[in-house]
Amino acid sequence: MDYERVKLVQPHYGAVNVYRIGATLVDTGHVAVESRNRLRDALEGQLSGIENVVLTHPHIDHIGGTLTVDDVTRLPHTVYEGADNLLREYPDYIETAREEMAALSAGLTGGEYEPDTEYFPLDIEYATERVAIDRVVGDGDTVQIGPYDCEVVHTPGHSQQHMSLYHAPSGVMLSGDIVSTNGHFMYGPLHWDIGAYKTGLERIRERDPDLLLPGHGEPMDDPAARVTDALEKARRTERAIQAAVEDQGPIAAHELAVEALSATDETVRFLSNVASAYAVHLAEIGTIDIDRRPYVVAMPA
């Protein structure tokens, strides 16, 4: 598979990748002004002649051009099941995402949560009604990306509406955010699920790709090792959280982030969300109990 990687920007977290494959654009960057401007410039150059869009998932750093750049909005879009409805109601999604993050961090902030209005803005116009959704696909469907027929592989966990796209003849998989640069689970608001995350990783392993094109960072030419590392880190995190809960009794998610995930003052808010996701998963499989206050408090089963 021939591809061109274009790096756009997002607030706080570095670059986000979009890919040109033939006349198809895969993902469209963040909604931030600088990302939008870079995308507009690229449409006059490296991305000129794009005819359609495929979204790996509907997070705010992957749908920016879709909902804020008219020349992208009007192009026919292919999305995974559920992403179509979310895109049509995107301001509501952002508002609910803010509410979840406020709840999950309430134990740390004492309820004085200030939303990240730069990363999750509500003061811009989202083209929710104008976006041209041409096709909604499910697991096992075939999507044409440029000249290539690719298998839709449902890879949830980071987002329930997340798909990877696998071109078997070349061994290339567009993997979105399911495999992170550092191998750890990436929290994304509302539709996270650690059990589904591990299932998604296993589904990539089953295809045995030769190259991953991720949503962030460099292409990964060692997919098997990356997936193995991610699964081991997930298991290790589960063990660390289980041990902290058994050792300390009732423990809030922000304390778990410090004890089990080595969170610092700079990372504790985000890692509290990650710790919450793991604690919810462990409660679902019955190894611990949790209480929502509304933040997550974990305790021995």
UniProtKB/TrEMBL annotation:
<dbReference type="InterPro" id="IPR036866">
    <property type="entry name" value="RibonucZ/Hydroxyglut_hydro"/>
</dbReference>
<keyword id="KW-0378">Hydrolase</keyword>
<dbReference type="GO" id="GO:0016787">
    <property type="term" value="F:hydrolase activity"/>
</dbReference>
<dbReference type="Pfam" id="PF00753">
    <property type="entry name" value="Lactamase_B"/>
</dbReference>
<feature type="domain" description="Metallo-beta-lactamase">
    <location>
        <begin position="15"/>
        <end position="216"/>
    </location>
</feature>
<dbReference type="InterPro" id="IPR050662">
    <property type="entry name" value="Sec-metab_biosynth-thioest"/>
</dbReference>
<dbReference type="InterPro" id="IPR001279">
    <property type="entry name" value="Metallo-B-lactamas"/>
</dbReference>
<protein>
    <submittedName>
        <fullName>MBL fold metallo-hydrolase</fullName>
    </submittedName>
</protein>
